[in-house]
Design a protein that fits this description.
5-stranded mixed beta sheet; globular; Transcription Regulator spoIIAA; 5 helices; 33% helix; alpha/beta
Length: 150
Amino acid sequence: MPVLCAGVKPAHDEQTPHGGGHVGERPDREQLMTVRWSDQDDAIILTVCGEVDGLTAPRLRMAITEAFDRLSGRPLVVDLTDVTLLGSPGLQILRDSAGEAVHHQGLRPLRIVVDETRPVVRPIEIVGLDQILSLYHRIADALAGDDLHS
């Protein structure tokens, strides 16, 4: 069942010196990105909505770390289909988490759900993470293990 990302504030709504508000003031991190958990019998699914950048990336890292600690042999699926920006801090977390997944899950890679839009897929491809991550277009495919590259 899809997770709605209500309440995630888009980047164009940020307060800037030219857009009103106070100089240097940024929206609360909670308005830029949310991470929702779904702890299921066959997997843990993290659904990420909004922007993954330098401000929000530490929360994503913490959520992935906590999920790894609770896996008990299940796969971790990270759903990025509602991410509107995947900056270099988010890419670094995915790279680091791919290595950590090998430690927690043996030879099974981290399962990442992406749609076909540029904000997520393009940065992953540019830095070559598509070669070390298992990418899927749907959560059901990630749960089944039907890798896009298979």
